[in-house]
């Protein structure tokens, strides 16, 4: 019965999403349609507005929704021309030309249970084919491709969570309906408790311009801090709890969530007192040259059975073989920190920057093989060329490995994503640019290009180029 429900839910998403451009043309968008508040009163290309909803700062607080249904679908097609590849190992990005794709569809049912309480459940379907089995890069090229991607459509429950908000005054602000968020109002000063199954990136490190691969940058290097080995199963979800205190201009949030039972595996370890991922984040809004900005600093600590690279290297030398992570797993803790900035440059230009570090002593357990990372970029709205809903983005990232991590790979070790059999180490350098054409409120068509030097941190390989087309719809 569960699988039948989820198939029907995803089918409903697809049907609604495909019809979305028609709703926009006819000016009859369904109740609860989503859009960020800054778009609410902006003129559309044809002179009409995408939404009649009041923006959050208009002083008008909408009535609380009792329930809402939202959905999305995203298709990404990618092509990689051939590149220099003098040798290849088990986990190399193959040098021959190749194609890749992903498709996801999600439906969210939200219910307001009582004052301040929302319950959301997401049914999701996904399929896809990755370059080289999702191997050979630290900054993988498609944030929509899960580690479980396959040619067959797989249906599952993505999120199931309760969010309780306690208002503490400080004035009221509007909340516009969206995926996993009901329309209504909330106090500017509040405490928020989220309990259940979520993505960690629903709560932490939510930079405005580099957060969502469905409408923004595609490369994993721009989804979050590259070295943020955040708790997640191989689809990107986890279970646990987070508590936030939000005031006018600043916030602090902390949470504990389940780690997978095995490195980059699907089943989660439910022993939250023994194995867990902890994180804490501080957020502060500021003014720079009379333009608003937001600074965030996050720290994390993961505790579970992990392999230590140094121990794997030593065991391999003693045995006269290539090092193996499976032989040295035991209880370890991994720590890291990251800092990020969102900065408004003009009304139509927003810039971002992230820098992160993890200790790099133990294997990557839940995200990707990056131990040090710096990324920065800019996103521009198309107002100057009479396309106010279009956006163009450009960003660069530099990813690096710890000394012991690179030593493990150089000795022939295999990680969850990397392993050329040898390593002429160099930092991985990624540049990405995209143009997103948005003729209707519910429709995005994006062209994207990525250029990757030293793919998989190997100077002997590349550069690799990836060209993408993305179609995204939502209601």
As for the number of domains, it is 1
Q: How far is the first residue's CA from the last residue's CA?
A: 26 Å
Estimate the helix proportion, in percent: under 10%
Q: Which range does the strand content fall in?
A: 35-45%
Biggest sheet layout? 16 strands, antiparallel, barrel
Instruction: Supply the CATH class.
Output: Mainly Beta
| CATH fold field value | Porin
Overall radius of gyration = 22 Å
Biggest β-sheet: strands ordered side by side in the sheet = 1-2-3-4-7-8-9-10-11-12-13-14-15-16-17-18
Order of helices and strands: HEEEEEEEEEEEHEEEEHEEE
CATH architecture: Beta Barrel
Residue-averaged pLDDT: 89
Derived structural class? mainly beta
Shape: globular
Give unreliable regions as ranges: 1-49, 51-56
| Count of individual beta strands | 18
Count of helix runs: 3
What does this structure look like?
- Helices cover 9% and strands 44% of the residues.
- The protein is mainly beta and 475 residues long.
- It has one domain (2-33, 68-108, 122-157, 207-474): Porin, CATH 2.40.160.
- It has a 16-stranded antiparallel β-barrel with strand order 1-2-3-4-7-8-9-10-11-12-13-14-15-16-17-18. Strands 5-6 form a two-stranded antiparallel ribbon.
- A hairpin with a 2-residue loop joins strand 8 and strand 9 (250-257).
- Helix 2 packs parallel to helix 3.
- It is globular and about 70 Å long.
- It starts with a helix and ends with a strand.
């Amino acid at each position: 019965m569960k699988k039948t429900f989820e198939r029907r839910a995803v089918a409903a998403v697809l049907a609604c999403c495909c019809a979305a451009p028609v709703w926009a043309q006819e000016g009859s968008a369904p109740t609860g349609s989503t859009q960020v508040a800054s778009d609410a009163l902006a003129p559309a290309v044809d002179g009409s507005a995408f939404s009649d909803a009041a923006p959050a700062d208009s002083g008008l607080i909408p009535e609380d929704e009792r329930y809402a249904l939202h959905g999305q679908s995203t298709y990404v097609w990618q092509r990689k021309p051939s590149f220099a590849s003098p040798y290849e190992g088990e986990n190399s990005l193959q040098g021959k030309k190749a194609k890749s794709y992903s498709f996801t569809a999600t439906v969210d049912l939200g219910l307001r249970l009582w004052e301040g309480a929302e319950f959301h459940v997401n049914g999701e379907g996904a399929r896809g084919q990755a370059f080289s089995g999702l191997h050979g890069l630290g900054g993988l090229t498609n944030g929509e491709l899960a580690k479980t991607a396959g040619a067959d459509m797989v249906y599952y429950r993505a999120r199931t969570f309760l969010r309780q908000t306690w208002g503490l005054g400080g004035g009221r602000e509007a909340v516009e309906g969206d995926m996993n968020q009901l329309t209504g109002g909330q106090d500017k000063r509040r405490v928020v408790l989220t309990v259940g199954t979520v993505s960690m990136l629903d709560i932490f490190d939510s930079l405005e311009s580099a957060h969502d691969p469905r409408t923004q940058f595609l490369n994993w290097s721009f989804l979050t801090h590259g070295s943020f080995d955040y708790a997640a199963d191989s689809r990107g979800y986890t279970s646990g709890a987070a508590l936030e205190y939000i005031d006018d201009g600043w916030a602090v949030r902390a949470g504990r969530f389940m780690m997978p039972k095995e490195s980059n595996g699907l089943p989660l370890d439910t022993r939250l007192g023994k194995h867990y991922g902890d994180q804490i984040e501080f957020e502060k809004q500021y003014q720079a040259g009379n333009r608003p900005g937001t600074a965030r600093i996050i720290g994390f600590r993961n505790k579970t059975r992990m392999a230590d690279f140094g121990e794997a290297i030593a065991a391999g030398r003693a045995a006269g073989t290539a090092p193996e992570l499976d032989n040295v797993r035991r209880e370890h803790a991994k720590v890291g920190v990251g800092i990020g900035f969102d900065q408004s440059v003009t009304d139509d230009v927003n810039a971002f920057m992230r820098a992160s570090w993890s200790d790099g002593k133990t294997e990557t357990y839940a995200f990707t093989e990056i131990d040090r990372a710096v990324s920065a970029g800019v996103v521009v709205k198309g107002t100057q060329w009479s396309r106010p809903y279009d956006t163009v983005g450009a960003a660069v990232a530099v990813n690096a490995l710890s000394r012991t991590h690179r030593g493990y790979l150089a000795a022939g070790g295999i990680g969850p994503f990397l392993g050329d059999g040898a390593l002429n180490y160099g930092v991985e350098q990624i540049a990405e640019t995209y143009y997103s054409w948005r003729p209707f409120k519910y429709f995005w068509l994006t062209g994207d290009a990525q250029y990757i030097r030293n793919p998989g941190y190997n100077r002997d390989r590349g550069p690799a180029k990836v060209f993408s087309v993305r179609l995204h719809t939502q209601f």
